[in-house]
Amino acid sequence: MTESRLEPEKRVESQLLQEMKRATPARIGVSRTGTRPLTQTMLELRLDHAQAVDSVYGEVSPGTLAEMGFFSVDTCFGNKEQYLKRPDLGRRLHPEAEKRLLERCKREPQVQIVVSDGLSAASIEANIRDVYPALLDSLRLQGFEWGTTFFVRGGRVGCMDPIGDLLKPECLVLLIGERPGLVTAESMSAYLCYRPRTGRTDSDRLVLSNIHRGGTSPMEAGAHIGTRVRLMLEQKASGVGLDR
Questions:
Q1: How many angstroms separate the CA atoms of 134 and 234, rounded?
Q2: pLDDT at position 1
Q3: Domains and CATH numbers, the chain
Q4: Number of CB atoms found within 10 A of residue 202's CB
């Protein structure tokens, strides 16, 4: 039966469903056969799930790091299985990492940028070439200086604190892979903190999430992060203490 021959109430319901489906990439109103999804729907779900798993267990390629000019350090995560089971290990820098940062990084920079795979290596591969240059352009236009950018393997958001203890930046920006879902495995977040140090909590951090081609575009996100940095440096605060 075509939509024009539906009863008025059913026609309105159909139109509302189509509007909802256009407004979100979430799986709503999918067809089924009996109690099961259609084969195409099920195959798409399994594909998206496989991509999410690959993203969690994947690694950012050495070629990408070399292209961006990032050197790499590790947390205490050990391996992916430990990383998933022991989030605390991803918040602690490996002793060799601490040594390397002190040797290679500028101390007390105005802005310190850190990149980490987090829970999605694919998000770094997909977005870093756009978001990082846009962030640098934004900082440059506002007259800010930044330190030595580097990559942290096996990082969690809390690794910002020991990095802050070592390098003592005025502001730290962490670009990190988000937990992948079934809509995209390429979503990145940016966490910002004013004077990160041991003892900081999530309420002390500002976050911009959903950075990917189907969410906040990487280039737009880079520019926006720069404006947030300006507010943080002006107000000397971040997180819930920032007047936005």
A1: 21
A2: 47
A3: 57-241 (3.40.50.11240)
A4: 12
- Interatomic CA distance for residues 24 and 43, integer angstroms: 20
Backbone dihedral region for residue 192 (phi beyond 0: left; psi -120 to 50: alpha; all else: beta) = beta
Q: What share of residues in the chain are helix, strand, coil (percent, to 5)?
A: 50, 20, 30
Type of residue found at 226: G
186-205 tens-digit pLDDT? 889 999 999 999 999 999 99
Describe the crossing of helices 121-141 and 218-235 by its angle, rounded to 10 degrees.
50
Mean predicted lDDT score pLDDT of the chain: 89
Dihedral class, residue 36 (left if φ above 0, else alpha if ψ from -120 to 50, else beta): beta
DSSP label of 106: P
Segments of the chain with pLDDT less than 70: 1-13, 24-25, 54, 181-183
Tokens of 12: 């309105």
- Tell me what pLDDT residue 14 has: 75
CB atoms within 10 A of CB 36: 9
Question: Would you state the pLDDT for residue 38?
Answer: 79
H and E: helices and strands count for the chain: 8, 8
What are residue 72's DSSP bridge partners?
Answer: 151
The burial class, CB within 10 Å (0-12 / 13-18 / 19+), for 16 is: exposed
pTM of the predicted model as reported, rounded to 2 decimal places: 0.84
pLDDT at position 54: 66
